[in-house]
Structures are given as structure tokens and as C-alpha cells.
Specification:
Radius of gyration: 39 Å
Structural class: mainly alpha
Number of helices: 6
Strand content: under 5%
Length: 138
């Protein structure tokens, strides 16, 4: 068996939870001490280890790494420039690539949009919506 289980039982005895030598009882050996371990020599070198102080905050808050707190996401300027250049290049490339399809579509846009169809869509939709709340007559 690993020695950590015996150390854990000795810690329980040192804290006053157990009042006998549990590892010797489990292994069937003669007890190393009898009674509370607090009054007998400790199996550890010194007192029981103390719990660490985790320094918990008094309120729930988020502390920023930067001291000025002006910009929570601080992208460096070179990243902004690179993104801008890539976006502009994509727009220029897309404009050149789809120029033959885009220009005729924009020219025919007023002809293709029939405002009476758009108005009827909203009017019919409103009538269907308000019709749900009217009582049906049979």
C-alpha cells in the first residue's frame, strides 16, 4: 500500500477525529501510539500542515489586467490595419469578380421591385394576424 493513506489516517488522528493508530490497526501491527495523537509524538516532522489562505475577495468582481480600464479588448494597431486591408482587398476583389453580374442587377433593381407586392404582403400578414383573435361565426 502507498504511504499516503497512512499519512491521511495519521492526520485524522492528529486533528482529533480518530483516537487510535488506524494504520497499525488496518495492517495488524502493534500500535505506534495509544490515545489522541496530540499528546503523543507526531508521526510528522512538526505540527499538522495548515490550510493555505486563498485570499478570497470580499465582493464578486472582475479585476482587469490593465490599470487604465479604458479598453477591455486591446487589439494592437497592426492587427486593425491588417484586418482593414484584408477587408478592403476582399471588397475590391469581389467587385471586380462579380462586376458583370452586379451592375445589371443594380440597374434592374427598380424594375424588379414591385411596391404593390410588398404592400400586399404586409397588409395580408396583418389581416391574418388580427383574424386569429376574432371570433369565428358559424
Amino acid at each position: 500500500m502507498s504511504p499516503s493513506w497512512a499519512d491521511n489516517l495519521d492526520m485524522l488522528a492528529q486533528s482529533g477525529v480518530l483516537d487510535f493508530d488506524a494504520p497499525s490497526y488496518v495492517t495488524g501491527q502493534a500500535p505506534r501510539y495509544v490515545g489522541s495523537i496530540a499528546y503523543t509524538p507526531s508521526p510528522f516532522a512538526g505540527p499538522a500542515p495548515a490550510a493555505q489562505n486563498l485570499e478570497q475577495p470580499k465582493i464578486d468582481e472582475f479585476k482587469y489586467q490593465k490599470s487604465d480600464n479604458k479598453d477591455r479588448v486591446s487589439n494592437p494597431p497592426w492587427k486593425k490595419w491588417v484586418f482593414g486591408m484584408l477587408a478592403a482587398g476582399a471588397l475590391i476583389f469581389g467587385g471586380i469578380k462579380f462586376k458583370s453580374k452586379l451592375v445589371p442587377w443594380i440597374k434592374n433593381l427598380p424594375k424588379n421591385l414591385k411596391f404593390d407586392k410588398i404592400g400586399n404582403f404586409f397588409k395580408n400578414g396583418w389581416n391574418k394576424f388580427t383574424g386569429m383573435f376574432k371570433k369565428k361565426t358559424s
